[in-house]
Amino acid sequence: MMNYQLYLATDRGLLGQKDLCTSVEEAIYGGVTVVQLREKDVSTKDFWEIACQIKKITEKYQIPLIINDRLDIALAVDAEGLHIGQEDMPMEVARKLLGPQKIIGVSAATVEEALTAEKQGADYLGVGAVFPTDTKKDAGHVGLEQLKQIKAQVKIPVVAIGGIHVGNAWSVMETGVDGICVISAILCQKDVRKAADTLRKSCLRLSTP
Amino acid sequence: MMNYQLYLATDRGLLGQKDLCTSVEEAIYGGVTVVQLREKDVSTKDFWEIACQIKKITEKYQIPLIINDRLDIALAVDAEGLHIGQEDMPMEVARKLLGPQKIIGVSAATVEEALTAEKQGADYLGVGAVFPTDTKKDAGHVGLEQLKQIKAQVKIPVVAIGGIHVGNAWSVMETGVDGICVISAILCQKDVRKAADTLRKSCLRLSTP
């Protein structure tokens, strides 16, 4: 049973002086429930090396590791799953190569994309960008209302992504989604562990910012 | 039994107005014995789509298709093999994921890299750049003498790459290598089929330019 509540996607470009492995470990201490490793413009060797390092950490804490886009890396490090966007490997090809046990998540920005992905066997959906974001400039805009509609029409878990932070996390959770995916709201914060812990509590409404 | 004699690597950036599929088919008519699909800076979806198209052509003519770098694409289209550089997936990881039947080629620029790749189970080596080339600016320079040395020290087939054209192909073959790998010497020529045919004959010394 997957817990999608606080889903961390990585972006090494946002880390500044911080080390990715340390940041991921701190974020897990703070309460992150899933880690997605997302690397762009790196060699396959570099992606593989960082994936090996992150896998050691996620395994230690029994947190599922999802690899963005690259099925070869997911296979190479025996990650728990793969996340594919609309410009990545088609869902049916990915499922055939990964088998039925691995988690496959699909990015969706419309009800149609969401229903197609569910039909093709996606295990969860990443829906966004819910709010405008600098991290992924090519992402289409999806408001809270559409997020709610998508969630209402699919049976698989929905994780909301895009511009989510401690100030709006609860408004996102109120749409009924299963979790929030954040990058900068955790990785760009001075105290990564505390940022994850505060976000986790916001999602559960254990604290109000 | 693989025939590495005239190995075509692709580069869509060099094609100008020409279509990649048409060019590959023409090159096969001209005598190309192996096709390596090499795509940089494209989405996984685009790479997969073009690989599906090229696979149909290579299958039709029973020419092996090798995918550059991306093991996910090689698996997705059931290509005959994968070519990895020193910045790609490590050889042992690639072999584990592809199994013993698939061809794995490794780029090598020194005797040491060549011996390591052979020891790790590479099926062939791509050695270069033999001559300076614009196609792959980051490639280290390997002269004919070093090429000869590498060939003498390994048992697996050696394909020479880098700046090879009809004017120097025979000098390369004289080092004892099993074949030449070209990109622009075929793809950038006005008559792709004729260019491949002339190169093939040069390799066999059936004609002197």
TrEMBL record, chains A, B:
Cofactor(s) for this protein? Mg(2+)
Q: How is the cofactor bound?
A: Binds 1 Mg(2+) ion per subunit.
Q: Which reaction does it catalyse?
A: 4-methyl-5-(2-phosphooxyethyl)-thiazole + 4-amino-2-methyl-5-(diphosphooxymethyl)pyrimidine + H(+) = thiamine phosphate + diphosphate; 2-[(2R,5Z)-2-carboxy-4-methylthiazol-5(2H)-ylidene]ethyl phosphate + 4-amino-2-methyl-5-(diphosphooxymethyl)pyrimidine + 2 H(+) = thiamine phosphate + CO2 + diphosphate; 2-(2-carboxy-4-methylthiazol-5-yl)ethyl phosphate + 4-amino-2-methyl-5-(diphosphooxymethyl)pyrimidine + 2 H(+) = thiamine phosphate + CO2 + diphosphate
Q: What biological-process GO terms show up in the record?
A: thiamine biosynthetic process; thiamine diphosphate biosynthetic process
Q: Name one GO molecular function term.
A: magnesium ion binding
Q: In which pathway does it act?
A: Cofactor biosynthesis; thiamine diphosphate biosynthesis; thiamine phosphate from 4-amino-2-methyl-5-diphosphomethylpyrimidine and 4-methyl-5-(2-phosphoethyl)-thiazole: step 1/1
Q: What is its EC number?
A: 2.5.1.3
What are the binding positions for Mg(2+) in this chain? D69, D88
Q: What InterPro entries does the record tag this protein with?
A: Aldolase_TIM, ThiamineP_synth_sf, ThiamineP_synth_TenI, TMP_synthase
- Say which family it is in: Belongs to the thiamine-phosphate synthase family.
Stated role: Condenses 4-methyl-5-(beta-hydroxyethyl)thiazole monophosphate (THZ-P) and 2-methyl-4-amino-5-hydroxymethyl pyrimidine pyrophosphate (HMP-PP) to form thiamine monophosphate (TMP).
Q: Which protein is depicted?
A: Thiamine-phosphate synthase
Give the originating organism: Formimonas warabiya
Identify the gene encoding this protein: thiE
